[in-house]
Specification:
Number of domains: 1
Radius of gyration: 19 Å
Distance between the termini: 33 Å
Oligomer: single chain
Number of helices: 0
Amino acid sequence: MRKNLLSVILLISISSFATDISLNWVSPLLSSSASGKPQTQIYSVQSNAQGDAFVLGNYGSVASSDETTFLGAVFTGAEYGSGTSCNNNLVFAKTDKQGKLLWAVHSNEGYFKEGVFCPTSDGGAVLAVKFRLTQKNLVKGQESPYMTLVDAAGNTHSLTATYDGTNFSHIVLVSVDANGLVSRIEPLWTSHAVPPSNTGNKPSEDVASVSAVTIDDEGNVYFAGQHTMDIALGTDTLRARPCTGWTGDVQV
C-alpha cells in the first residue's frame, strides 16, 4: 500500500510560568504531487544557542524536474530511473526564530538513506550522512555520483563510485559553515569485501551506520555507529571482528 507522507515542522514557545502554548510558525515539506509519489520525511530538528533552528529531512523525486517546497524555497532532486519507487533526496535547512529560511543545502544526485547532525558554535553544522547510487545509475562498470550536495551558494560537491553489481552504501561526514556553504566532505572508507546477507547469497549492501555525531569546542568531530566490515577515516582503521555463526547482521 502506498502512503503519501506529509512532514511538518513546528516551532512552539512554552512558558515555564504559564499554561498557554503559542504556535509561532509552521512550514510543510511538500514534495511534488505531479510524480504521484509525494513522499517526505523530517528526521531531526535542533536549535543552537542563538535560537536558530536546523532541520534535516528528505523528499522524493521521480524526475529531476520534480519540485519540492519547504520554508518558501523550491528544491529539485535526482531522476529515479526505471521502477515504481522514487529517489530520496536530502534537505538540510537553517531558519531564524521566526521561521525565516537563512539557508539550505540539498542533494540532487544519489539516494539519501539516513543522517544525523550537530549544530556548531559558529552557526554552522556537522553532519554524518549515508548515500548510495540512485536507480538510474545502476549500470555495471559505470562511475556515477553517489552523492551530490548543492550548498546555499549553488556550489556542487560530489563523490562518485563505480557500480560493480552491489549498490554499496557510503557514509560521509559533511561540514557546513555559518553561511550554508559546504566547507568539507570526508567519506568514511568501508571494506568492499562485503559478506553475504542473512537472506541468501546476495552480498550485503549496508555494512555500517552512524547513529550520532557531535563536535567539541576545538572543532574535533566525534561519531558513533555500527559496522560489520573494516572501516577507516584517514589512516585509522577499525577492524570488524565477526563472531562464530555470524550471518552478516550489523553489530556494534
